[in-house]
Amino acid sequence: MRARLPALVAALWWGSMTAIGFLAVPLLFAHLPSPSLAGFMAAKLFAAQTWVVVACCVVLLLISRPKSAPALYPWAKAAMVFMLGGMLLALLAQFGVAPRIVARQDLRLWHSVGTAMYALQWCCALAVLWLTLQPAAPAAVVATAERSDDGD
Questions:
Q1: Which residues of 110-142 are buried (b: 16+ CB within 10 A; e: fewer)?
Q2: What are the Cα distances from residue 27, in Å, to 8, 72, 109?
Q3: Confidence at residue 142, expressed as pLDDT on a 0 to 100 scale
């Protein structure tokens, strides 16, 4: 289970971003009676999504190295910049861009910036998911199998 946890968390991160950004929010604008109501609801969904991103990234960071080893797992070495980048983008979008959109301050500019940041977050999540799904090196597979035989 522990070996698959990074992929499950990364899948939650990427899948939730995909569902919110590419399905739920467009449906709000297509079916709610006014763009302002849809925008209000979209802001709530994106705020909730920010905390999903932060939680997923924190969990990934916490499980990125074995308990008794100083080195990171191979997937974590490769994914670290994407985990930190995705979390930073989410927080910047929530606390830097979203308030400007809600205040309708240069709406076209800030909406474009927010959309670009969301797309970059989505790419970070996809990269982390991809890296967590990479097959382990043969030595790592043997070490994992030995640990699981010891009752792990």
A1: beebbeebbeebbbbbbbbbbbbeeeeeeeeee
A2: 26, 40, 23
A3: 45
3-class SS of residue 55: helix
- What token pair was written down for 79? 């994914």
Tens digits of residue pLDDT in 71-100: 888 888 999 999 999 999 999 999 999 999
Torsion angle of the four alpha carbons 124, 126, 127, 128, in this order, in degrees rounded to the nearest 10: 90
pLDDT in tens, 38-72: 999 999 999 999 999 999 999 999 999 888 878 88
CB 129 within 8 A of CB 10: yes
Residue found by looking up tokens 């597979």 in the block: 141
Alpha-carbon torsion (142, 143, 145, 146), positive or negative? positive
- Model confidence at 106, pLDDT cuts 50, 70, 90, reads very high
